[in-house]
């Protein structure tokens, strides 16, 4: 039994927390990061998680340098471009990969590596709400366990397709934020199969045809809907071709 851990948010935060400006001469400043401080923070967090799940082997999930989502939607995470990573962040990731059991799959993110790997007897740990689109037992930082059923995972996924994600830079369907009344409507709550969800989602994109053109110059709402779905989709077991080292792109419910 494993506990699959999305370590990147903690690693990034630790590297930022322990990066300092440093003056090397009258006119020169640089940055330096205390990697030893970062490691102390991260190993402490991992030790605490191990206490909550003593019978599970920790597996750290990290993202690859290439990401298939950029080819699907070029503006994906464009709002993050230019944000500088802390000095030494690459070395910190390398240390974690070399000193813990870890998974890095070509062309996908840490979320995908986790979603592809976690099985029925495993635990999932991530502070990223996107992982709630993956069914399984999720562990909170305090050790509390929450089971996400397949229906809940699907509901969360299709909601993400509609709302988009401003953090990741993809817009979703205009007019449908996370608190929209639509998500408490009978139409939404009575969806139980993936086909029901997908037909309803496509219908909302068709209703937003004019807004999609005005805001994003979208001329084919259903094609754009599929783009949003493929970007939002955290890969699940069976959705990765290990021979070609590429994801199997989601193509709607079968």
Q: Can you tell me about this structure?
A:
Strand 7 and strand 8 form a beta hairpin. The chain folds into two domains: 147 residues, 5'-nuclease (Rossmann fold, 3-Layer(aba) Sandwich); 90 residues, no CATH class. It starts with a strand and ends in a 7-residue tail after the last strand. The protein has 254 residues and is an alpha/beta fold. The radius of gyration is 20 Å and the shape is globular. Helix 6 packs parallel to helix 8, helix 6 crosses helix 10 and helix 8 packs across helix 10. The longest helix is centred in the N-terminal third of the chain and has 18 residues. The protein has a six-stranded mixed beta sheet with strand order 5-4-1-6-7-8. The chain has ten helices and ten strands.
Shape, principal axes of CA atoms: globular
CATH 4th-level superfamily of the largest domain? 5'-nuclease
Provide the spatial order of strands within the biggest beta sheet.
5-4-1-6-7-8
CATH architecture of the largest domain: 3-Layer(aba) Sandwich
Gyration radius (Cα, Å) is 20 Å
Order of helices and strands: EHEEHEHHEHEEEHHHHHEE
């Amino acid at each position: 039994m494993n506990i699959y851990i999305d370590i990147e948010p903690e690693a990034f935060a630790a590297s930022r927390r322990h990066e300092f400006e440093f003056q090397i001469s009258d006119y020169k400043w640089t940055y330096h990061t205390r990697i030893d401080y970062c490691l102390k923070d991260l190993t402490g967090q991992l030790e605490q998680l191990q206490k909550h799940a003593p019978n599970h082997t920790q597996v750290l999930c990290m993202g690859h340098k290439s990401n298939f989502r950029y080819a699907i939607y070029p503006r994906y995470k464009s709002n993050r471009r230019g944000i500088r990573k802390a000095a030494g962040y690459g070395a910190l990731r390398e240390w974690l990969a070399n000193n813990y059991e870890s998974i890095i799959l070509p062309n996908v993110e840490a979320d995908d590596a986790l979603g592809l790997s976690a099985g029925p007897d495993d635990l999932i740990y991530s502070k990223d709400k996107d992982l709630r689109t993956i069914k399984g037992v999720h562990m909170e930082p305090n050790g509390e366990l929450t089971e996400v059923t397949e229906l809940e995972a699907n509901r969360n996924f299709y909601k993400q397709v509609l709302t988009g994600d401003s953090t990741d830079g993809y817009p979703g369907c205009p007019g449908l934020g996370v608190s929209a009344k639509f998500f408490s409507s009978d139409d939404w709550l009575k969806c139980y199969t993936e086909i029901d969800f997908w037909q309803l989602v496509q219908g909302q994109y068709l209703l937003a045809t004019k807004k999609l053109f005005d805001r994003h110059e979208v001329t084919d709402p259903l094609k754009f809907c599929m783009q949003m779905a493929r970007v939002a989709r955290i890969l699940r077991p069976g959705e990765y071709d290990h021979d070609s080292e590429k994801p199997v792109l989601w193509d709607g419910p079968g």
